[in-house]
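User: Predict the complex.
Assistant: Input components as received:
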Amino acid sequence: SLPGYSYEVYHSLEEIQNWMHHLNKTHSGLIHMFSIGKSYEGRSLFILKLGRRSRAYKRAVWIDCGIHAREWIGPAFCQWFVKEVLQTYRSDPAIRKMLNHLYFYIMPVFNVDGYHFSWTNDRFWRKTRSRNSRFRCRGVDANRNWKVKWCDEGASFHPCDDTYCGPFPESEPEVKAVAHFLRKRKKHIRAYLSFHAYAQMLLYPYSYKYATIPNFSCVESAAYNAVNAIHSAYGVRYRYGPASSTLYVSSGSSMDWAYKNGIPYAFAFELRDTGHFGFLLPESLIKPTCTETMLAVKNITMHLLKKC
Amino acid sequence: YLYNNRYAGDKVIRLVPETEGKAHVLKNVCHQFKVDLWQPSSISYISEGTVTDVHIPQNGSQILLAFLQQANIQYTVLIADLQKTLEKGSSLKAQRKRR
């Protein structure tokens, strides 16, 4: 990996993008970086495609981090995941199997404008940075802007609210770009994982209603095994279940959209902690948080490779 | 100081309203003071028993806490000084010094 690049500190957007560029040059056998569009403020939306190149058909897993700007542990985990995969590809049979049989699309920072703003201005910014013509308030909640029961319960029509759903679905260029990308590949993307903080939960659909998903038993058993894997690392307990009843009802979320568009395993992680530090999870806790989360992601991926 | 020391004296408190009446009061307080809600993500989610984490600014905290005490809404302080916690948990200051 990049010499001197620490995965146990939080990095600015510029540092993360430099890191991505570096990996693209130095690990071309396993990594390919590309852009899927531009943010509201004109920043590139970079994705890393991980996996051994193959002419044969391969399924894929999508992972995004940093939908909400202030949840810095998310992008930290995305970087950790890539680092771990590159470092253990030869030594870990599970990782080798994952990369040989699947592609991973990693979006280390979904909300690039918001993330940059949280570094330079307001550490606790949540939304995107799009402007509203009628109000002085900026930004849309990128996890309420998807076209799935858009702006229903759990979202707000008011631009100054932190759960503002936007003027219309996929109004945010970041959301639109990712939605377009996933729609085009929905037949071979088998899992959608989105990383947030904080609550220590592993959530699956539905978020917008109280109902059981058709493939509940497969998804539930994957979640059960994943939280057990998390617990095995440092004894940290994660709750798991449908987002609507485990956390709260919210409409327009990326997880529900992914599921509705045919991705059978859609999860949202709420990483550490449960409020002691909240969004200010210290850098000293990046390593244990990412280590335990890595086990969960490996678990879900191996579950995916078996037939359920 | 990181962020020009703007978070000095800010607190994060946790409230769990015991009744719907207290939840209603808490929602009004959050709305009136335009607080930064850490969890849940929206004031509309606050009801009886909801774990509510609120970031309150230093200049409004005395009045806000007095409101809560008057309404008999118990709270615990999760983070007593946001700026100190920020500085302590980050290597940014050390990195900047080195540069």
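Chain A touches chain B at residues 9-10, 121-124, 126, 141, 154, 156, 161-163, 198-199, 247-248, 250, 275-284 (CB under 8 Å).
Let me know if you want any component modeled separately.
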